[in-house]
């Protein structure tokens, strides 16, 4: 399976280089690679990643009798394909008894037929098993880990996928792709920080718009008071508030309060502006 996503390819290469010491885990990993990396009815394991070809070869007991063939890429497929003939993948039977073996088989499934999308295009991990039988087995393996995958048809096959970031990180953790988990968590934290900043900026912009709209309404009302009532008839605090609002049309109430003599609190200047608005409403043609 070709991986255009650097994150997916890096995760696979890291997993392929990891040494699995226990013999039963090695057998489960090879079983996963062959089950999900050989086409239905075929005993040829195919991959476009050289690291996976080396891994599959190294896990075979009769590897000295096996060759890794490199098939050059064609016009529409630039990357070469690596092929290894193997014994026929074991028939689908009961799932491995040990959890570590089930996880190794899941790792083999991801390496053979899985991919991890670049987060820039949205969180997405998917598996494309070679047959319905192996799709059902993969679903059963995932469910033993408490995962509930989505299934969708594509080109005659059933795709097993996850789009939820928490489920994706759990899948990666299960197969041991810890570096990919850390990368996704870093990306998620960065996205959340950016979203938080955007929300704050949008909120601030909305607040500024509301403040400017309110200030414009205040200026119109005060101008009407000046014309129809006269500043001299206002009390000194109201007159000062009116003059400051007309002189500084874009300043906030807190800024206007600091210009008062003596300085006034925001709540105080707000009360004075409110009084001016009431006077304006009571005047003719307000």
Give a written overview of the molecule.
This protein is α+β, with helices and mostly antiparallel strands and 286 residues long. The chain folds into two domains: 171 residues, Endonuclease I-creI (Roll), CATH 3.10.28; 78 residues, no CATH class. The chain contains ten helices and seven strands. The chain has a four-stranded antiparallel β-sheet. The protein has a three-stranded antiparallel β-sheet with strand order 1-3-2. A hairpin with a 2-residue loop joins strand 6 and strand 7. Helix 1 runs parallel beside helix 3. The protein is rod-shaped and about 105 Å long. The termini are far apart. The model has no long low-confidence stretch (mean pLDDT 88).
What are the main properties of this structure?
286 residues; Endonuclease I-creI; three-stranded antiparallel beta sheet; 56% helix
Could you give the topology of this structure?
Blueprint lengths: L5 H12 L5 H15 L6 E4 L2 H10 L8 E4 L9 E5 L13 H15 E3 L8 E3 L4 H12 L6 E5 L2 E6 L2 H10 L3 H51 L7 H12 L5 H7 L6 H17 L4
Antiparallel strand pairs: 1-3, 2-3, 4-5, 5-7, 6-7
SSE string: HHEHEEHEEHEEHHHHH
Poorly predicted runs of 5 or more residues: none
The named CATH superfamily of the largest domain = Homing endonucleases
Radius of gyration in whole Å, from Cα?
34 Å
Largest sheet: 4 strands, antiparallel
Widest beta sheet: strand line-up: 4-5-7-6
Task: Give the count of helical stretches.
Answer: 10
Average pLDDT confidence is 88
Task: Report how far the terminal alpha carbons are from each other.
Answer: 74 Å
How many distinct folded domains?
2
Class derived from helix and strand content: alpha+beta
Tell how many strands the DSSP assignment holds: 7
CATH fold annotation of the largest domain = Endonuclease I-creI
Portion of residues within helices:
55-70%
Shape verdict: rod-shaped
The CATH architecture name of the largest domain reads Roll
The CATH class name of the largest domain reads Alpha Beta
- Percent range for β-strand residues: 5-15%
């Amino acid at each position: 399976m070709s991986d255009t996503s650097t994150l997916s390819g890096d995760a696979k290469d890291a997993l392929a280089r990891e040494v699995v010491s226990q013999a039963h885990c090695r057998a489960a990993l090879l079983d996963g690679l062959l089950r999900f990396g050989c086409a239905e009815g075929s005993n040829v394991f195919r991959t476009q990643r050289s690291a996976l070809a080396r891994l599959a070869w190294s896990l075979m007991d009769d590897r000295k009798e096996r060759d890794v063939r490199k098939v050059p890429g064609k016009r529409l497929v630039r990357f070469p394909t690596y092929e290894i003939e193997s014994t026929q993948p074991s028939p689908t039977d009961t799932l491995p008894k040990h959890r570590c073996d089930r996880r190794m088989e899941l790792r083999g499934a991801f390496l053979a037929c899985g991919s991890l999308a670049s987060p820039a295009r949205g969180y997405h991990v998917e598996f494309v098993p070679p047959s319905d039988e192996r799709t059902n087995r993969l679903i059963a393996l995932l469910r033993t880990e408490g995962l509930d995958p989505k299934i969708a048809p594509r080109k005659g096959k059933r795709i097993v996928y996850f789009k939820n970031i928490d489920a994706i990180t759990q899948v990666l953790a299960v197969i041991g792709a810890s570096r990919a988990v850390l990368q996704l968590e870093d990306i998620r934290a960065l996205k959340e920080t950016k979203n938080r900043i955007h929300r704050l900026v949008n909120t601030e912009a909305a607040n500024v718009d509301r403040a400017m709209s309110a200030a414009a309404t205040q200026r119109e009302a005060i101008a009407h008071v000046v014309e129809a009532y006269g500043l001299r008839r206002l009390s000194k605090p109201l007159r000062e508030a009116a003059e400051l609002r007309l002189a500084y049309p874009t300043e906030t109430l807190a800024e206007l309060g600091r210009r008062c003599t003596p300085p006034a609190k925001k709540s105080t200047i707000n009360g004075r502006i409110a009084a001016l608005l009431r006077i304006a409403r009571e005047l003719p043609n307000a």
